[in-house]
Structures are given as C-alpha cells and as structure tokens.
TrEMBL record, chain A:
Keywords: Membrane, Transmembrane, Transmembrane helix. The chain crosses the membrane at residues 12-30, 51-72, 78-104. It comes from the Bacteria. This is Branched-chain amino acid transport protein (AzlD). InterPro entries: Brnchd-chn_aa_trnsp_AzlD. It comes from Methylobacterium isbiliense.
UniProtKB/TrEMBL annotation, chain B:
It is a multi-pass membrane protein. It holds the Pfam family AzlC. The gene is ygaZ. Belongs to the AzlC family. It is found in: Cell membrane. The chain crosses the membrane at residues 21-39, 72-96, 145-164, 171-191, 211-231. It comes from the Bacteria. The keyword Transport applies. This is Inner membrane protein YgaZ.
Amino acid sequence: MSPGASADWLAGPAGSAVAILALALVTYLCRASGVVLMSRVRLTPRVERALRALPGSIVVATALPTGLSAGLPGLAGLAAAAAVMALTRFELAAVAAGLATVALGRALGL
Amino acid sequence: MTSTAAPFTRAGILRGVRLSLPIWPSIAVFGAAYGAAAAQRGLSLAEATAMSAFVYAGASQMVTLEVWGRPWTLSALLAAMTVTALINARMILMGATIQPWMRGSPPWRTALSLFVLVDASWLIGVRHRAEGGNDLGVLVGAGAGLWPLWVLSTAGGHFAGALVSEPRVYALDMIMPVFFAAMLAPLWRGVRPALPWLVSGAVALVVQHVVPGYGFIAAGALAGLVTGALVDDGAAR
C-alpha cells in the first residue's frame, strides 16, 4: 500500500473519525498491556521491589526533562510544587505555586 | 499473599471522586487549554471533544495536535499513532504497578476500569494503596469522576479559544510536569527507596538529549524499574 493513493478515503469526512478511533485504540492498548503483561509475571520479592520503585521513577522521568527544557523557571516551578506539596499535602496549592513560579520566572525574563 | 480479589465498593468510588476534587481546577484548566489549542489548530468542536472522550490522555492529545492531519493521510495517521503510543507508553508501566492490586478481579471490570486510568487517578490509587488502602473503587472513582470534567472543559476551551491564546504566559504548558512534581511528596519513603528515581531522572535526561521524541519517559522509568529490582530498598516486607 502506498500511503497517498490507497488511502484517499482518509482525506474525506470520515478521516478524522477513523483517526480518533485509532488513537483511542492505541491509548487503550497502552493502558491494558501493562496489566496483561504483569498477569504473566510471578510476584517474587524482586519483582515487588521493582514495582515499588516504578511510580516515583515514572513521575521523575516525566517531570524532570520536561521541566528542565523549560529552563530555570521550569525547574523552579517543579521545586516549588514539590516543596508546597511536602508542606501542605494539598494538590491545588502545590500546582498553583508551581504554575505561579513558572509564570513569574517567565515574566521576569529568566 | 492472599488469593482473594481486592474490594470494589461504592464508598471507594465516592472516596476516589473526593480525593480527586483538589485537582479538578487544574484538570479543567488543562482541558480548556487543550480545547483552545485544538480550535487554533482547526479541529472542529466535535473532533476536539471526541478526542477527549475517547482518548482521554491530555499530554498525548496535546502533542498529537502538532501532527494532526489536514487532510488525513495514511502516513499522517501512522505518525499520530506513533506519537500517541510513545507518550502513553508510561501507561504500560502504570498498568504494571497496579496489576498486583487487580489480581482476582473480574476481567470485564478490569477492562472497563482501565479505560479511565489516567495520571491523576493512578497517582491517587497508588497513594491510597501506599497508605494501606485496598479498595479498587478509589482508583476507578478518581478516573471516572475526572472524565466528564475533561470532556466538558475541552468543549468550553474550544468555545473560548481566543481567551487562552497565550497558554505560555500563564504557564499552562507546564501543568503536567508541575502536577507530577507535586506527587513526589506523597510517594516519598526516604532516601534509599528514592535511589531508582534518581537513576530514572538521569537516564531520562540523557535519552532526551540523545534521542528525539518522547522515548525518554519510558527509558527513564525502565531504568528505575531495573534499579529497583537490583538494589535493596530496605522495606520490611
């Protein structure tokens, strides 16, 4: 199948609907495959330890590079959010502090 | 290790909704930002809200706008699917972390529950479990409660498109990383269990600079997973 010619129907009104369903399917497969995969793994102490390390690892791997690519304001925002959360345990305050820090840093041209 | 399934109660569902309330404003703002960005990119109201309703994964929806087909071709579709899979690959790992919790539950309920698995509900569920809870209703309630909010705020943002034309000024592009950073505090269990996080962050940064795209999230998280398997975290279990 050559991408352009054989898929002319994608360019029509149905194209977006097909695309949205395809993206929904890809996302659902991501949601489900970890669960299916793990149901075939025996829960040894080593596996449990690895799974315990995973949530924080996902959080850091997602937030740190994205924050750093936003420069100094980004990094300061992440630090502010983590600090406020540690002190107050209130998500809204933490997110507000983080975003306010980023916005302020950008307004100051840092 | 018990062989009985974790409970799934109405009280748990309500608790999940309640635990998600503090982040409703951020999700609504993020949803509105998505709707506004989608409008600027030329998506119709129906397309934007359908994306939020069926895909229900903010970061990947946002980035998919960059490769949205006008008109759609097979190669544009494949590009969009690849970007979506890469950004949502973290959900594979999230699923792995909650699978032991779902062991023994009816498969149909697990399948439905997974449709509403999002970053926020996963974090709320993980936290609930770390604090000794075991009710799967909390995980599902948090995700299901956020769904109508996400869809409605997308529609609202699409209408209000022009209002949020400068999301960077209000730092709205940073909502997801900021929210994730905030979630580190409740997950903190001391320095030793955090060693894999450090490895994860270092690997993610390196991969981000070497490999273009969004593979860095999965690469970092996998490095953390392996570190966790290899290094004793000192937990008394």
